[in-house]
Amino acid sequence: MPDNKVLHDLNGMPVLCHSLSAFMPFADEILVACRTEDEARINAILSPFPCARPVRGGATRGESVFRALKEAKGDMVLIHDAARPFVTPEVIKNCLESVKKYGSAIAAVPLTDTVAHVFEDRIADMPPRKSLYGLQTPQGFLTRDIRAAYEKAFAEGRGGEFTDDSGVYAAYIGSPHIVAGDLCNKKLTYASDFMPAERVGFGVDTHAFAHQEEIDQGIARLNLNYITLGGVVIPSNRALEAHSDGDVLIHALMDALLSAIGERDIGYHFPDSDQKYKGANSMKLLSLVMETVRMKGFSVKNASLSVLCEQPRLSPYIEGMRNNLRAALSCENVAVAAGTNEKLGYIGEGRGITCYALVLLQSNHR
User: When you count CB atoms within 10 A of the terminal residue's CB, does the N or C end of the chain come out lower?
Assistant: First the structure.
């Protein structure tokens, strides 16, 4: 990871690009405070943004902001941490309107966690949570006011004392006005924060229909009266060969989920050489896979599955499959399609069923 986290890639482009793109529709000019050693890279990133230009930063955040404020030309200014790339247009609009009306704007969200003052690893005090907010950026001001506040702070030797601009404003101008922030507007801090916000996984599985001689030899399931797809029992004159319950749709889905989080396939996690999985309920195995997905910090945003078979006819059972999968994945955006293979190949000859699964995961760290 680059030393400067705003230069690190996030979903295919530098973090700074995401922040610049968010502010472009609202800004007459964008000043990016940067270190000397980053200036060449910053200039390259700024080239598609005509109103953006770099400003030589200082040794501290406060000094960098003050240097940029000295060059700001507009009557209003929004100060933003570029490491918050998920800022929404609504938050930016809230800040602009508040500056126009009140002269200041601090994006903030109510705290949901209990907060404590800690001294020597012990809780000393717990202030009432209902009046506590987490402050974000952007923080907006009339340029003359925040510039004057920083001038006074540095004149008194307090320029490095404040953790954000609202503190400088409160110390020298007045109490700043709060506006609604957004929980998605988080500051990238830890390595895990830079995981792709979304991941795609693909899975495919095939099961052959069992023959009577395989039934007689105990190779395949004894029940010829049904198959199981998506947790739904479907009447069928032939069963599927399987060590577990043969739910080919769930097997493809599990492989898609595992591939999206960089894990090995279901043959590795639930081997058919292990007798504890003989006749296993695939919906229960899916719940184990979903536990791993959640432990990795992801949830399912979308799932699309397609089943190819000649028989049995699946359309009456599609909605039941979707309902089972919605519950198992904790996701409403689940699609299940079924079709034939136009009498071609092993599917068209009625010798097996194949299912394809595509999933989109979203990071829970956003």
Answer: N
Domain 5-189: state its class.
alpha beta
Would you give the DSSP letter of residue 343? Answer: T
Nearest C-alpha neighbor of 314 from the set 229, 190, 212: 229
Location of structure tokens 């059972």:
317
For residue 196, how many C-alpha atoms fall within 13 Å in the half-sphere facing its CB?
10
**DSSP-derived secondary structure for 234-257:** EE-SSPBP-SS---HHHHHHHHHH
Who's near 267: CB < 8 A, 6+ residues apart?
none
The string of pLDDT tens digits covering residues 75-107 is 999 999 999 999 999 999 999 999 999 999 999
**Do residues 118 and 124 touch, judged by C-beta distance below 8 A?**
yes
Alpha helices for the chain (secondary structure H): 15-23, 39-46, 61-71, 89-102, 143-155, 165-172, 212-216, 248-260, 266-269, 282-295, 318-329, 345-348
203 phi/psi in degrees, rounded to 5: -140, 150
315-346 CB burial, b ≥16 within 10 A, e <16? eebbebbbebbeebbebeebebebebeeeeee
Domain range list for the chain: 5-189, 198-363
- 29 closest CA partner among 74, 67, 61: 74
Q: What is the CA radius of gyration of the chain?
A: 29
pTM for this predicted structure: 0.61
Q: Does domain 198-363 have CATH number 3.30.70.1170?
A: no
